[in-house]
Amino acid sequence: MSFTPNFSPSTSLAGKTAIVTGGANGIGLEVIRKYHASGANVVIADLPSAQPAAERAIRSLGDDDAPPRAMFVPVNITDWDAVNAMFASAIDKFGRVDIVVANAGIMESREFFNFQTDEAGRLIEDESSSRVIDVNLKGTMNSNYVFHEPFSLKHAVFYMKQNPPDEDGWRGSVVLVSSTSGYFGGTEVVSYVSSKHGVIGLLRSSHGPAQRLGIRVNGVAPFITPTFITQGYSELWKEEGLPTNTPADVATGIVHMSLDKEMLGKCCLVAGGRYRELERPLVDASSAWIGEEMFSAFLKAGAFFRNLGGYPLPGQRALTIENNVINSVQ
């Protein structure tokens, strides 16, 4: 379903606080500008190396308020304690967090099937691919050995559920930035596509539990947008007349999804400045996709687990790690 974002600069966000990861440049910076222009307190969360860019961004906001409504927090979003500190800094300065935009993202610099071996001929891990998963998925996810937990999202829900509810009962809003690569794999950029599919899976599985705590979770899936990721082909793309976003186009979609209280577990495609919600049409087409019989079975399965109060989780299996090998203890 296509729609026109209803966010406008006249929207008042006075007293609200928004954290944007990857907020020092590009799409993240445009999101920061839109929130700040509407009166929100803004937290630019980015790598320590982004501090000069973040400081320039804050100056460009013309923040003459006393106290200022913008701050930079250096953070590695794959570091659990660093993200704890980021939220603590935001709350210490502004009192609460109302909106989190999980925007940080990178792409691998080498092909996935780039086989490098050591002296013994054994395959070496490609850290470029691993880093993409760390930032794009665990930049919603944190890892300690093999145990993974929802990351920016989990922190956001933890702190937002402590907010008093608004007039509609909501305590906060989270937007996960995926990509059209979260729905399609045609580019064959293996790690990036996998990570962005993972973000869509996180959206689908987390929005229900988050809603029960008073937090809305939605997503945005931008089509090609000129950033450092696309710099190798962006001019050729334009010459072909293909639809291209501006960072401001994507930022408009992000801000809309964060503020529209009708959006619950939805994802907004942004393509050439056009906006379309993707999740509802997929549900509506499911019976044609998998067949009426299987679709009916899936609906019954969903009702089954809801009647149980949720999926019954198995007990944790004891694991040992010896010589970098994970063993299950029976």
UniProtKB/TrEMBL annotation:
Protein name (database record): Uncharacterized protein
- Which Gene Ontology molecular function entries are recorded, alphabetically? oxidoreductase activity
What are the alphabetically sorted keywords of the record?
A: Oxidoreductase
Q: Which family does it belong to?
A: Belongs to the short-chain dehydrogenases/reductases (SDR) family.
A Pfam entry, by short name: adh_short
The cross-references to Gene3D superfamilies, in alphabetical order and at most eight, read: NAD(P)-binding Rossmann-like Domain
Q: Which PANTHER family match?
A: 3-OXOACYL-(ACYL-CARRIER-PROTEIN) REDUCTASE (AFU_ORTHOLOGUE AFUA_6G11210), DEHYDROGENASE_REDUCTASE FAMILY PROTEIN, PUTATIVE (AFU_ORTHOLOGUE AFUA_6G03520)-RELATED
Species assigned in the record: Talaromyces pinophilus
